[in-house]
Structure prediction request, 621 residues.
Amino acid sequence: MESAALGQEPVSLGARRFRVLAAIGPMERVGIALVFLITLVALLVPLIAPHGPYETIGPAYQPPGHYGLLGTDEVGRDLFSRLLYGMRASWFSALAVVAAGALIGFAVGLLAGVRGGWVDTALMRITDAGLALPGPIIAIAVAVALGPSLVHTLIAVTVVWWPWYARIVRAEARAIVVRPHFDAARLAGAGGLRLAVRHVMPGALPAVVIAASVDLGYLILTLAGLSFLGLGAPPPAPELGAMAYQGLNALFSFPWIPLAPAVAVFVLAAAANMAGDGLRDLLEDV
Amino acid sequence: MILRFVLGRALGLLVVLWVLVTIVFMLGAVIPSEPARAYAGAGASPAVIAQKREELGLEKPLLTRYVDYLERLGQGDLSESVHTHQPVADDLREAFPATLELLLASIGITMLIGLAVGVVTARPRRGTGLLRGALLAGASVPVFTLGLLALFLFYYKLGWFPAGGQTAPGTIHVVGPTGFLSLDALLTGHFGVFVNVLWHLVLPATALALTPALLTARTLRSSLRHSLRQDYARTARAKGLTERQVLWRHALRNSLNAPLTISGLELGAMLAGIAVVETIFAWPGIGLYIDRAIAANDVPAICGVTLVVGVVFVVANAIVDALQLVVDPRLRQHA
Prediction:
């Protein structure tokens, strides 16, 4: 920071931050490129996939190369196409949970941080209690109570995920409301909502983006684990975790059937983690 | 001062436990569209469901039901499982020792690998980039991928380890005072069974431990690197201590805080991973119970598990908090 007076440091993303793009390592760049590539492929899956996810294309348990790129599964469906649809579901599910969690986190964190007082105390007590409980186990319980469906699982994971974001947003908001620009906006007559959204939220955004990018890989793993346990779209939906579970019996005879989806989850999570690390370095080190 | 701190923490613990109990009550009683159906099982007839409604007191006001629930909880009643038709508390008591054995073995492996990898990689040397990649990749492997690969490689291809279960089929059934198979085998002098149990533990415990171990290593590595750059490390070097002495005697203890903090969080992920690992390795513990309960949509069983596992998690994190005060005296002042 150069000679900015106390409290007047720029809060928003400065243009010079992007100059550090050159400074991040090759691994992170590969990660960010992969994230874009995966999102693009995920969007285009219905056009790219050689077959539909429910379509039977030949006999069951065909080895890779005979019917389709990866062979067929236990019912004779194209494993490669189902893999693509599964990756699409995993990717967008994780993104949806991150988005929903961040949105709720923003609402709660901004309310607590801008209002302060008893509202802050009450909301943060709830948030802390949420953080003190074992998230994945609570998510399993919520998903079971709601009944098996992908949307219910996403709701269940969001329920245990938002407190992280609320904590981050609240901490940032508390630091921002003591800055002069906030006082100026308040004295100019801005209402509560406008103050929160226009004058506090932009300052809290970088921290949330960092948290979200680091979370993405972890979420992909969590959702795949829940899907493996049968919490997700009910079969025969193409979900990577569920495909690995259903292929468990074939592990010694047709190992690629459970291992291909298992490796696909790894690829998604690794790409997300590499990109997350890169983004964190990018936003934090400046 | 210390007393106030302890009382404050204890009060916080009680509040969290109360929240947990309330959440579990809501999950069982409010969220399912028809709680009686959830408790009676999906295939129950209308008459059975009506009877279950009566039995569960679903006609009563919510607050009354909540008080009833707390009372039953006080008596150790966790309701009855849909898929085993037994009290959930009995099911859990039966499954708990096997899971605790697996969990403790995994925590041991996590700490061992985490400490070793963290210390070895703390000092800058060649291949750091490669190492970072390996640690990152390790943090991206799903538990079930590790389990499947371990099973395929070390059981099917190499035959080094057994496929699953707690002992080989045909092993004598050991009953002992503790309920823990490994301990009981040792106490009753069945040394062969003890070795057999440990042998069966290796794959599931390692599959469960690897990701948290690498996370621990990553955290320890970065705090060690920070500690080694501090003034006191330079002073220690100036006194003529070897780099090894500086690291083990001075830097390490100052670097244990961050890994300890995340170890509490890792426990949460491990508890969920247990269900996956026990399913793959047919380990007869709470994880396998969760898997079967999910398949049967067994809400009471899941609620019971959530409560018990939640309490274990919250208490374990309180212990980690206390450990941090032991490791780092600076924190005691803030307390």
Notes: The mean pLDDT of chain A is 83.
